[in-house]
Protein backbone atom coordinates (compact mmCIF):
# COMPACT_ATOMS: atom_id res chain seq x y z
CA UNK A 1 0.00 0.00 0.00
CA UNK A 2 1.36 3.42 -0.96
CA UNK A 3 2.26 5.78 1.86
CA UNK A 4 0.18 8.93 1.86
CA UNK A 5 1.55 12.43 1.27
CA UNK A 6 -0.32 15.53 2.46
CA UNK A 7 0.60 18.95 1.10
CA UNK A 8 -0.47 21.93 3.20
CA UNK A 9 0.22 25.10 1.28
CA UNK A 10 -0.50 27.70 -1.35
CA UNK A 11 -2.40 27.74 -4.62
CA UNK A 12 -1.75 30.60 -7.07
CA UNK A 13 -2.61 31.40 -10.62
CA UNK A 14 0.71 32.24 -12.27
CA UNK A 15 0.93 35.04 -14.82
CA UNK A 16 4.01 34.20 -16.89
CA UNK A 17 5.59 37.21 -18.62
CA UNK A 18 8.31 36.41 -21.15
CA UNK A 19 11.00 39.01 -21.78
CA UNK A 20 14.61 39.15 -22.96
CA UNK A 21 15.78 40.42 -19.59
CA UNK A 22 14.30 40.99 -16.16
CA UNK A 23 14.24 44.75 -15.50
CA UNK A 24 16.56 46.33 -12.97
CA UNK A 25 15.04 48.78 -10.44
CA UNK A 26 13.64 51.77 -12.34
CA UNK A 27 14.08 50.10 -15.74
CA UNK A 28 11.34 49.45 -18.32
CA UNK A 29 11.69 46.56 -20.75
CA UNK A 30 9.45 45.12 -23.47
CA UNK A 31 7.92 41.70 -22.99
CA UNK A 32 7.03 39.11 -25.62
CA UNK A 33 3.95 37.40 -24.17
CA UNK A 34 1.88 36.79 -21.05
CA UNK A 35 -0.12 33.70 -20.11
CA UNK A 36 -1.67 32.19 -17.02
CA UNK A 37 -0.67 28.75 -15.71
CA UNK A 38 -1.74 26.95 -12.50
CA UNK A 39 0.90 27.31 -9.80
CA UNK A 40 1.63 28.11 -6.16
CA UNK A 41 4.34 26.28 -4.24
CA UNK A 42 1.90 24.02 -2.41
CA UNK A 43 -0.16 23.23 -5.49
CA UNK A 44 2.96 22.62 -7.58
CA UNK A 45 4.25 20.12 -5.03
CA UNK A 46 0.91 18.34 -4.82
CA UNK A 47 0.57 18.27 -8.61
CA UNK A 48 4.10 16.93 -9.04
CA UNK A 49 3.56 14.24 -6.42
CA UNK A 50 0.37 13.21 -8.20
CA UNK A 51 2.05 13.11 -11.61
CA UNK A 52 4.79 10.95 -10.09
CA UNK A 53 2.16 8.35 -9.07
CA UNK A 54 1.96 9.39 -5.41
CA UNK A 55 -1.01 9.00 -3.11
CA UNK A 56 -1.42 12.70 -2.39
CA UNK A 57 -3.97 15.08 -0.93
CA UNK A 58 -3.89 18.81 -0.30
CA UNK A 59 -5.16 21.32 2.24
CA UNK A 60 -5.30 24.90 0.96
CA UNK A 61 -7.64 27.70 -0.10
CA UNK A 62 -8.74 29.44 -3.31
CA UNK A 63 -11.21 32.17 -4.15
CA UNK A 64 -14.67 31.56 -5.55
CA UNK A 65 -13.51 32.67 -8.99
CA UNK A 66 -12.44 31.17 -12.34
CA UNK A 67 -8.79 30.95 -11.25
CA UNK A 68 -9.69 28.91 -8.17
CA UNK A 69 -11.80 26.52 -10.21
CA UNK A 70 -8.98 26.07 -12.74
CA UNK A 71 -6.45 25.34 -9.99
CA UNK A 72 -8.67 22.65 -8.49
CA UNK A 73 -9.27 21.12 -11.93
CA UNK A 74 -5.55 21.00 -12.57
CA UNK A 75 -4.83 19.17 -9.31
CA UNK A 76 -7.69 16.75 -9.89
CA UNK A 77 -6.28 15.92 -13.33
CA UNK A 78 -3.03 14.82 -11.62
CA UNK A 79 -4.91 12.51 -9.24
CA UNK A 80 -4.70 14.79 -6.18
CA UNK A 81 -7.43 14.56 -3.52
CA UNK A 82 -8.70 18.16 -3.36
CA UNK A 83 -11.32 17.64 -0.65
CA UNK A 84 -9.20 19.73 1.73
CA UNK A 85 -9.18 22.83 -0.48
CA UNK A 86 -11.51 25.53 0.85
CA UNK A 87 -13.31 27.87 -1.56
CA UNK A 88 -13.44 31.38 -0.04
CA UNK A 89 -16.31 33.57 -1.18
CA UNK A 90 -14.91 36.95 -0.14
CA UNK A 91 -11.21 36.55 -1.01
CA UNK A 92 -9.67 36.15 -4.48
CA UNK A 93 -7.41 33.29 -5.46
CA UNK A 94 -3.70 33.91 -4.88
CA UNK A 95 -1.73 35.20 -7.86
CA UNK A 96 1.95 35.18 -8.86
CA UNK A 97 3.53 37.41 -11.49
CA UNK A 98 6.59 35.74 -13.00
CA UNK A 99 9.08 37.50 -15.24
CA UNK A 100 10.99 34.93 -17.32
CA UNK A 101 14.12 35.99 -19.20
CA UNK A 102 15.77 34.46 -22.26
CA UNK A 103 18.22 32.43 -20.15
CA UNK A 104 15.41 30.70 -18.26
CA UNK A 105 15.88 32.61 -14.99
CA UNK A 106 12.90 34.24 -13.31
CA UNK A 107 11.76 36.68 -10.65
CA UNK A 108 8.41 36.33 -8.91
CA UNK A 109 5.97 38.57 -7.03
CA UNK A 110 3.20 36.76 -5.13
CA UNK A 111 -0.17 38.21 -4.06
CA UNK A 112 -1.31 35.78 -1.31
CA UNK A 113 -5.10 36.26 -1.59
CA UNK A 114 -6.96 33.20 -0.29
CA UNK A 115 -3.71 31.58 0.87
CA UNK A 116 -3.98 33.76 3.98
CA UNK A 117 -7.07 31.70 4.84
CA UNK A 118 -4.98 28.57 5.37
CA UNK A 119 -5.27 28.75 9.15
CA UNK A 120 -5.04 26.21 11.98
CA UNK A 121 -8.84 26.21 12.00
CA UNK A 122 -8.91 25.11 8.36
CA UNK A 123 -6.48 22.31 9.10
CA UNK A 124 -8.59 21.20 12.09
CA UNK A 125 -11.55 21.00 9.74
CA UNK A 126 -9.64 18.46 7.65
CA UNK A 127 -7.86 16.61 10.45
CA UNK A 128 -8.80 13.27 8.90
CA UNK A 129 -6.35 14.02 6.08
CA UNK A 130 -3.62 14.72 8.65
CA UNK A 131 -4.36 11.57 10.60
CA UNK A 132 -4.25 9.35 7.53
CA UNK A 133 -1.02 10.66 5.98
CA UNK A 134 2.59 9.54 6.47
CA UNK A 135 4.40 12.62 5.09
CA UNK A 136 3.48 16.30 5.31
CA UNK A 137 4.93 18.92 2.93
CA UNK A 138 4.58 22.62 3.66
CA UNK A 139 6.08 25.96 2.56
CA UNK A 140 6.12 29.63 3.56
CA UNK A 141 3.46 30.97 1.15
CA UNK A 142 0.87 30.40 3.88
CA UNK A 143 0.88 32.17 7.28
CA UNK A 144 3.89 31.27 9.44
CA UNK A 145 1.64 30.63 12.43
CA UNK A 146 0.01 27.90 10.37
CA UNK A 147 3.39 26.41 9.50
CA UNK A 148 4.23 26.35 13.23
CA UNK A 149 0.91 24.63 13.93
CA UNK A 150 1.60 22.07 11.20
CA UNK A 151 5.01 21.35 12.69
CA UNK A 152 3.54 20.78 16.14
CA UNK A 153 0.89 18.49 14.65
CA UNK A 154 3.49 16.48 12.75
CA UNK A 155 5.53 15.97 15.93
CA UNK A 156 2.46 15.09 17.96
CA UNK A 157 1.16 12.59 15.42
CA UNK A 158 4.48 11.07 14.34
CA UNK A 159 4.42 12.33 10.74
CA UNK A 160 7.55 13.02 8.69
CA UNK A 161 7.60 16.74 7.89
CA UNK A 162 9.36 18.29 4.89
CA UNK A 163 9.57 22.10 4.90
CA UNK A 164 10.36 24.14 1.79
CA UNK A 165 11.23 27.51 3.39
CA UNK A 166 10.23 29.77 0.51
CA UNK A 167 9.88 32.67 0.53
CA UNK A 168 12.55 32.62 3.24
CA UNK A 169 11.98 34.53 6.48
CA UNK A 170 14.99 35.77 8.47
CA UNK A 171 15.14 35.79 12.25
CA UNK A 172 12.97 32.75 13.01
CA UNK A 173 12.91 31.59 16.62
CA UNK A 174 15.57 29.11 17.74
CA UNK A 175 13.20 26.15 18.07
CA UNK A 176 11.42 26.66 14.73
CA UNK A 177 13.28 23.74 13.10
CA UNK A 178 12.98 21.37 16.05
CA UNK A 179 11.55 18.07 14.78
CA UNK A 180 11.48 18.97 11.05
CA UNK A 181 12.58 15.85 9.17
CA UNK A 182 13.90 17.62 6.06
CA UNK A 183 14.47 21.30 5.23
CA UNK A 184 14.82 22.02 1.50
CA UNK A 185 16.15 25.56 0.86
CA UNK A 186 18.10 26.94 -2.08
CA UNK A 187 21.31 28.87 -1.46
CA UNK A 188 19.60 32.29 -1.28
CA UNK A 189 17.00 31.01 1.17
CA UNK A 190 19.65 29.35 3.35
CA UNK A 191 21.59 32.62 3.58
CA UNK A 192 18.44 34.48 4.66
CA UNK A 193 17.44 31.82 7.18
CA UNK A 194 20.86 31.73 8.82
CA UNK A 195 21.94 35.35 8.40
CA UNK A 196 25.27 34.07 7.05
CA UNK A 197 27.15 35.20 3.95
CA UNK A 198 27.84 32.25 1.69
CA UNK A 199 30.14 31.87 -1.30
CA UNK A 200 31.56 28.36 -1.12
CA UNK A 201 30.44 24.78 -0.64
CA UNK A 202 31.94 24.86 2.85
CA UNK A 203 29.84 27.92 3.68
CA UNK A 204 26.69 26.13 2.51
CA UNK A 205 27.47 23.08 4.60
CA UNK A 206 28.15 25.22 7.66
CA UNK A 207 24.85 27.06 7.12
CA UNK A 208 22.95 23.80 6.73
CA UNK A 209 24.52 22.44 9.90
CA UNK A 210 23.38 25.53 11.79
CA UNK A 211 19.76 24.49 11.02
CA UNK A 212 20.54 20.93 12.06
CA UNK A 213 21.96 22.33 15.29
CA UNK A 214 18.54 23.90 15.87
CA UNK A 215 16.75 20.56 15.52
CA UNK A 216 16.30 19.80 11.81
CA UNK A 217 17.05 16.22 10.78
CA UNK A 218 18.47 16.72 7.28
CA UNK A 219 19.02 19.75 5.06
CA UNK A 220 18.87 19.19 1.29
CA UNK A 221 20.25 22.37 -0.27
CA UNK A 222 19.55 22.93 -3.97
CA UNK A 223 22.11 24.95 -5.94
CA UNK A 224 20.35 25.34 -9.31
CA UNK A 225 22.32 24.08 -12.29
CA UNK A 226 25.29 23.28 -10.02
CA UNK A 227 23.50 20.47 -8.16
CA UNK A 228 22.61 19.96 -4.51
CA UNK A 229 24.09 19.04 -1.15
CA UNK A 230 22.45 16.68 1.38
CA UNK A 231 23.68 17.50 4.89
CA UNK A 232 23.22 15.58 8.13
CA UNK A 233 25.09 15.72 11.44
CA UNK A 234 27.41 13.00 10.20
CA UNK A 235 28.15 13.92 6.58
CA UNK A 236 27.56 16.17 3.59
CA UNK A 237 27.17 14.67 0.12
CA UNK A 238 27.29 16.71 -3.11
CA UNK A 239 25.23 15.64 -6.13
CA UNK A 240 25.97 17.34 -9.48
CA UNK A 241 22.94 18.37 -11.55
CA UNK A 242 22.03 16.87 -14.91
CA UNK A 243 23.34 18.91 -17.83
CA UNK A 244 20.34 20.11 -19.87
CA UNK A 245 19.34 23.23 -21.79
CA UNK A 246 17.38 25.35 -19.32
CA UNK A 247 14.24 27.02 -20.66
CA UNK A 248 12.41 27.97 -17.44
CA UNK A 249 13.28 27.24 -13.80
CA UNK A 250 9.73 27.86 -12.51
CA UNK A 251 8.52 24.94 -10.31
CA UNK A 252 11.92 23.21 -10.40
CA UNK A 253 12.36 23.52 -6.64
CA UNK A 254 8.76 22.45 -5.98
CA UNK A 255 9.14 19.42 -8.24
CA UNK A 256 12.40 18.52 -6.48
CA UNK A 257 10.67 18.62 -3.09
CA UNK A 258 7.74 16.51 -4.29
CA UNK A 259 9.99 13.95 -5.97
CA UNK A 260 12.13 13.71 -2.85
CA UNK A 261 9.01 12.96 -0.79
CA UNK A 262 7.79 10.38 -3.31
CA UNK A 263 11.14 8.55 -3.29
CA UNK A 264 11.43 8.55 0.48
CA UNK A 265 7.82 7.37 0.82
CA UNK A 266 8.72 4.40 -1.39
CA UNK A 267 11.61 3.44 0.86
CA UNK A 268 14.52 5.01 -1.05
CA UNK A 269 17.60 6.14 0.83
CA UNK A 270 18.76 9.77 0.59
CA UNK A 271 21.10 9.09 -2.36
CA UNK A 272 18.39 7.49 -4.48
CA UNK A 273 15.81 10.05 -3.42
CA UNK A 274 18.03 12.95 -4.46
CA UNK A 275 18.89 11.25 -7.76
CA UNK A 276 15.19 10.77 -8.48
CA UNK A 277 14.45 14.41 -7.63
CA UNK A 278 17.24 15.58 -9.93
CA UNK A 279 15.92 13.44 -12.78
CA UNK A 280 12.52 15.09 -12.41
CA UNK A 281 14.03 18.59 -12.32
CA UNK A 282 16.08 17.83 -15.44
CA UNK A 283 12.78 17.57 -17.31
CA UNK A 284 11.01 20.47 -15.58
CA UNK A 285 13.62 23.10 -16.47
CA UNK A 286 13.42 22.24 -20.18
CA UNK A 287 9.74 23.32 -20.30
CA UNK A 288 7.91 26.59 -19.68
CA UNK A 289 5.52 27.25 -16.83
CA UNK A 290 4.81 25.77 -13.42
CA UNK A 291 2.49 22.75 -13.48
CA UNK A 292 2.64 22.65 -17.26
CA UNK A 293 6.35 21.75 -17.00
CA UNK A 294 6.01 18.82 -14.57
CA UNK A 295 6.45 15.37 -16.13
CA UNK A 296 4.53 12.17 -15.53
CA UNK A 297 6.63 9.39 -14.10
CA UNK A 298 6.49 7.53 -17.40
CA UNK A 299 8.32 10.44 -19.07
CA UNK A 300 11.44 10.02 -16.96
CA UNK A 301 12.68 7.10 -19.07
CA UNK A 302 16.12 6.11 -17.80
CA UNK A 303 15.95 8.79 -15.14
CA UNK A 304 13.51 6.86 -12.94
CA UNK A 305 16.26 5.60 -10.64
CA UNK A 306 13.72 4.14 -8.22
CA UNK A 307 12.88 1.37 -10.70
CA UNK A 308 16.48 0.16 -10.88
Report on the structure:
With 308 residues, the chain is an alpha/beta fold. Helix content is 32%, strand content 26%. The chain has helices at residues 41-51, 66-77, 120-125, 127-132, 144-157, 187-194, 201-213, 252-265, 270-284, and strands at residues 4-8, 12-19, 31-39, 55-63, 81-88, 94-100, 106-111, 135-139, 160-164, 182-183, 218-222, 227-231, 236-240. The strands form two sheets. It has a nine-stranded mixed sheet with strand order 5-4-1-8-9-10-11-12-13, with helices on both faces. A four-stranded mixed sheet has the order 3-2-6-7. A hairpin with a 4-residue loop joins strand 11 (218-222) and strand 12. The two termini are 20 Å apart. The mean pLDDT is 93.
Tell me the distance between the termini: 20 Å
Quick one: overall form? globular
How many alpha or pi helices? 9
Low-confidence stretches: none
In short:
With 308 residues, this protein is of the alpha/beta class.
Amino acid sequence: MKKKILVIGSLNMDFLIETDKIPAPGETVLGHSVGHIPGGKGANQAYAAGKLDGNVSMIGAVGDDPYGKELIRSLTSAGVDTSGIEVCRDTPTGQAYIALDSSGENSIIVIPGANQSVTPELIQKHMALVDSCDYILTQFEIPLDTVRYVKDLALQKGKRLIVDPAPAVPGLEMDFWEGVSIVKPNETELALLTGQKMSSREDYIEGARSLIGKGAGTVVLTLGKTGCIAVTREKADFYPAHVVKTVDTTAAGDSFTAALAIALSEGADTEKAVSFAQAVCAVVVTRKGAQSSIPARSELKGGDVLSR
